[in-house]
Amino acid sequence: xxxxxxxxxxxxxxxxPPITMFGPDFPYAYDDxxxxxxxxxxxxxxxxxxxxAVIGGGLSGIVAAYELMKMxxxxxxxxxxxxxxxxxxxxxxxxxxxxxxxxxxMRFPPSSTALQHYIDLVGLETRPxxxxxxxxxxxxxxxxxxxxxxAETAADLPQVYRDVAAAWNKCLDEGADxxxxxxxxxxxxxxxxxxxxxxxxxxxDNQTFYGFxxxxxxxxxxxxREIFGQVGFGTGGWDTDFPNSILEILRVVYTEADDHHRGIxxxxxxxxxxxxxxxxxxxxxxxxxxxxxxxxANGEPRPAVTRLxxxxxxxxxxxxxxxxxxxxxAAIFTAQSWMLLSKIACDDSLxxxxxxxxxxxxxxxxxxxxFVPVDRPFWLDKDEDTGRDVMSMTLTDxxxxxxxxxxxxxxxxxxxxxxxxxxxxxxxxxPLSANERMEVMLKSLGEIYPKVDIRKHIIGNPVTxxxxxxxxxMGAFKANLxxxxxxxxxxxxxxxxxxxxxxxRGIFLAGDDISWTxxxxxxxxxxxxNAVWGVMHHFGGETDPANPGPGDVYDEIAPVELPxx
Length: 565
Known about the structure:
By secondary structure, the protein is α/β, with parallel strands linked by helices. 29% of the residues lie in helices and 16% in strands. The protein has helices at residues 30-35, 59-71, 113-121, 159-176, 178-186, 190-204, 209-214, 222-231, 246-254, 270-277, 353-361, 423-427, 434-448, 485-492, 521-538, 554-557; strands spanning 51-55, 74-78, 89-91, 100-102, 126-128, 140-144, 147-151, 262-264, 305-311, 315-320, 325-328, 331-333, 345-346, 364-365, 367-374, 393-396, 402-406, 414-422, 463-466, 477-478, 507-509.
């Protein structure tokens, strides 16, 4: 796709290997691991049927539970709200059920190859997502400082935007070895990936995204930095990420996580729900036709966890909101990590003190959205005077920031995401109700599109979310601040426990905020597979030699370890 500010390398050769979220911190081929006919591993027959607690019914928890069930273990899933986590798809009261809104994850890059494995497994379809200036987007309007520019391709924008694009490209190549890393990742050249990344981690761990731009001669212009922050690349403005570590941004651009996005037809929440109900073709111990739902009373997960503590024999004891107490030989924790500090009473002995410090220091981004249902995709109507679309996907410095237009055909009801914002821009919406938010958004968009009466097309009440105000999430996704690399390393590598004291083993962290790619469903899948390997290893199991798991090759590709002193 052509983005507002394209990535550093325009790849003309369509035959080159595709990018996958293959590193750079832990360049392990999860897609190959999943595709191998030998499977993910096996556990001793004496452990078949053993219960394992899986805390959190989001994508990571459901993937982990599904794979553990296939190995012959009995996952016991705990979920405080509903299956899906931040894959949350909702409808509109009184409207056609086919009209849905993605309150959490809504766009997925092709580089999410482990995620795609499960999308294909459960038979879901995807289609291009209408990001700014994407091929699937009829038109885009960039509105800054009261001046609007209409574009169908990046070439339609004023020269200053192309100058900003060139500055970003130059900044990446000169400051982050982008072309070399891109080539190494496409070729899955692990030694080269590790060589490049080790130097960058050491050099850039203490640097903010904004500081990285300021250090570049290409971005010496404040005006260029301002435009870049408001319009950005791929999905839009990135100024809300300016305080974060530049390493977080490099992971996104190296893996093309912000490019070529696709949405899941019918909603992303279908993925964990279908996995919950799916009866695997290959399964150990359990009868053919067994599903996760069938292993749980009434087909429902157990309620919220209220206490976690260790008991004799290095067991993990779980108390839930119903007062039930159960003890397990192993547990996987996939919920938002701050839950361990607030909602769940925990023994300090659950984790080493350095891991507790990492959990406490994790930084989360705020995020809010508001959607409205409309009678039809009226934005495709043509303005009589200009011949342009009457309304477009919109990037602006006004309160709405990003407005997305989502349709399923010219004669069908459609949905507008009136606003998608992050961080400070999200906090501005927090005190307002859904209807109050909608009124402010309609006013802002009315200033950009004075001829368009959006309100007359709205056919139902708005739906909204502020993830920082959700009691089981307290934020949208993790984003490391400068100096947080060491903390992230501790959390990600927790699944390899041979070097931990015996009294600190048996509970495994997973979820997208444990991954190096927080905010992307691929990270949830990858850390789930790490935890599955950890549980298998904990029970004395092993992978097939032909298909080594992430823990088997850990010493060869372990993330860079920075000195603590």
